[in-house]
Automatic annotation (TrEMBL):
Organism: Mycolicibacterium anyangense
Name of the featured protein: LUD domain-containing protein
Domain LUD as annotated: residue spans: 98-197
PANTHER family: LACTATE UTILIZATION PROTEIN C
InterPro entries registered for this protein in UniProt: FTHF_cligase-like_sf, LUD_dom, NagB/RpiA_transferase-like
SUPFAM superfamilies xref list: NagB/RpiA/CoA transferase-like
Length: 199
């Protein structure tokens, strides 16, 4: 490669170093996250921290769900205020999870510039299968969990000790496209993602 490019001008310096802070374009990080997550076709609402249960209820109703799986933390915090049939995850197999309408989780963090949510599957998030099999995922993200960019997210995950756990990075509903670029949603995970930004 060097020999083939020997007579070409030297490339310009990029002026950027990995790990250096990345601007959010003058936008507040929360507003940037909301904008970017919506770009990925997620439904995003921002509510006060005390209105999370009502927002979860509205998101589930909008998706037409009846049966909802969540871990104990989510059900303890908001379950009594959300009128659906809650299902506890006691090792439900994939076929049973496929018959559940929705899952409700919290998040470990979210990334403003990419509109990405990261789950480490600790309390509030359940095991990995919960966020991948049901057709609707309602995820609660608190404003203090939103970071600017991927390097900051990785640093926060290391700080939290989450980097040693299986992580799920979610950018919008599951989507793929075939050779003709026809978009298909729901192949590798939920086809509907509702994000509730709290705070």
């Amino acid at each position: 490669m060097r020999a083939a490019l020997a007579d070409r001008p030297a490339p310009a310096e990029s002026g950027w170093t990995y790990g250096a802070p990345v601007s959010t374009g003058g936008q507040d990080v929360v507003e940037r996250f909301i904008e970017r997550a919506a770009d990925y076709r997620a439904t995003v609402v921002r509510v006060d921290a005390g209105a999370v249960a009502a927002a979860v209820s509205e998101a589930l109703a909008a998706a037409g769900t009846n049966t909802v799986v969540a871990d104990d933390m989510v059900q303890t915090r908001w379950g009594a205020q959300v009128p659906v049939s809650w299902i506890a995850d006691d090792g439900l197999d994939a076929a049973t999870l496929d018959g559940v309408d929705a899952v409700v989780t919290t998040a470990t963090l979210a990334i403003a510039n990419t509109g990405t949510i990261v789950l480490d599957h600790g309390p509030g998030q359940g095991r990995r299968a919960l966020s991948l099999i049901p057709d609707v995922h309602v995820c609660v993200v608190f404003v203090d969990q939103i970071v600017t960019d991927v390097p900051e997210a990785v640093a926060r995950l290391v700080e939290l000790g989450s980097h040693t756990r299986p992580l799920t990075w979610i950018s919008g509903p599951s989507a793929t496209s075939d050779i003709e670029l026809d978009r298909v949603e729901g192949v590798h995970g939920p086809r509907t993602l509702a994000v509730i930004v709290a705070g």
